[in-house]
Write a structure and sequence with these properties.
Keywords: DNA-binding, Transcription, Transcription regulation. This is Transcriptional regulator, LysR family. Pfam families: HTH_1 (PF00126), LysR_substrate (PF03466). There is one protein chain. The relative contact order is 0.15. Strand 12 and strand 13 form a beta hairpin. About 9% of the residues have low confidence. Strands 3, 4, 5, 6, 7, 16, 17 and 18 form an 8-stranded mixed β-sheet that branches. Helices cover 37% and strands 23% of the residues. Helix 1 crosses helix 4 and helix 6 crosses helix 11. It starts with a helix and ends in a 13-residue tail after the last helix. The chain has 341 residues and is of the alpha/beta class. The protein has 11 helices and 18 strands.
């Protein structure tokens, strides 16, 4: 059994065609057929049912594909990491979620370049979830994200917590209230925009804005129409989770594709949303941003990188980050990545 045989099998399993699989991996169809046949002989198992069109995997073939595809992905990751370790790029490729760009990231990058003018920095807009695969493939060397991730290939450090603020239309009755409570916002349409969700947690019994017990099953939610949820629901959407922590469930929600669309709807008077405080300079002509009294309603900022390979310039990035935090008077705990030299 060798990698050529395994790659031939993976191609056939995914494309369900010998000719398409041969084209994909750059072999003639007879050569691919021989590799697959030899793999089956070596294993003593028939993996592909050749008598159906399109081709079907046997039960054993389906099991083998599920397991071996994961292993081959890890092999590709290890090969790429080994190549980058032996010849690290002089460029530092940094992934970020859009909300980070409105905060201190531009100042951090400016500080990094000022202290290390030889560093070539590339910035890439990429979601927290997608950063995990981008780190493994080498598309980015480090990522600024908003969510904790459990991945055996990735290590992360928490930089700081950023307070949320409520974004309201300028004409909203609460637009000039300086200290906002989540319970007072519950009867508004809450605009949701996160593409990455939290780990599963169970929705507790909630309390309505009038003080009467209310479960999520009594709420109305919609994208364009209302529907009822079950009494107990798994809360993974970050903004709903913040409300749930205080036993509150918004009366109505709308889900949009990203944060900019959410703020556009707020500006148009279509609802309210919560955003990290660094975004309170966006659309200020139409939107009022007000402080929440809840100190633990925050959005964390994480740095992610590979466990076994830390780009040589990542320590410089961390130093620049902490320098900016100190200048701004931001509380943080100095950390470094495990394999950082």
């Amino acid at each position: 059994m060798d990698l050529k045989q395994l790659n031939a099998f993976i191609a056939v399993a995914e494309l369900r065609s010998f000719s398409a699989a041969a084209t994909k991996i750059g072999l003639s169809q007879p050569s691919l057929s021989r590799l697959l046949k030899q793999l089956e002989i070596d294993m003593g198992v028939m993996l592909v049912d050749r008598y159906h069109r399109p081709l079907h995997l046997t039960e054993a073939g389906t099991f083998f594909y599920d397991k071996i595809s994961t292993i081959l992905t890890e092999v590709d990751t290890v090969v790429g990491m080994t190549q980058r370790l032996s010849a690290p790029s002089s460029a530092l490729n940094i992934g970020f979620v859009p909300s980070i760009l409105y905060g201190l990231l531009p100042e951090i990058i400016a500080r990094l370049k000022q202290s290390n003018p030889e560093i070539d920095v590339n910035l890439k807009d990429i979601s927290s979830y997608q950063q995990m695969d981008a780190l493994k493939s080498g598309d980015i060397d480090i990522g600024f994200g908003r969510f904790a991730h459990q991945d055996p290939w990735i290590q992360q450090i928490l930089l700081r917590h950023e307070r949320y603020v409520v974004a309201l239309p300028k004409a909203h009755p609460l637009a000039n209230v300086r200290e906002q409570r989540l319970i007072d916002l519950a009867n508004n349409r809450l605009i949701l925009y996160h593409q990455t969700h939290l780990p599963v947690s169970t929705m507790p019994e909630t309390v309505s804005s009038t003080g009467t017990p209310k479960t999520l099953g009594q709420n109305k939610k919609n994208n364009t129409s209302h529907h009822q949820a079950s009494t107990v629901e798994q809360i993974t959407e970050p903004l709903l989770y913040l409300f749930a922590q205080y036993g509150i469930s918004p009366f109505m929600t709308t889900t949009v594709s990203d944060l900019q669309v959410a703020l556009g709807l707020v500006a148009a008077g279509e609802g309210i949303t919560l955003v990290p405080a660094s975004l309170k300079t966006v659309r200020t002509e139409q939107i009022s941003y007000q402080r929440l009294i809840h100190e633990n309603v925050t959005s964390p900022i994480y740095l992610h990188t590979l466990k076994d390979f830390v780009h040589p310039h990542i320590p410089d990035l961390l130093r620049a980050t902490y320098h900016v935090y100190e200048q701004r008077g931001i509380t943080y705990r100095r950390q470094k990545f495990e394999s950082q030299r």
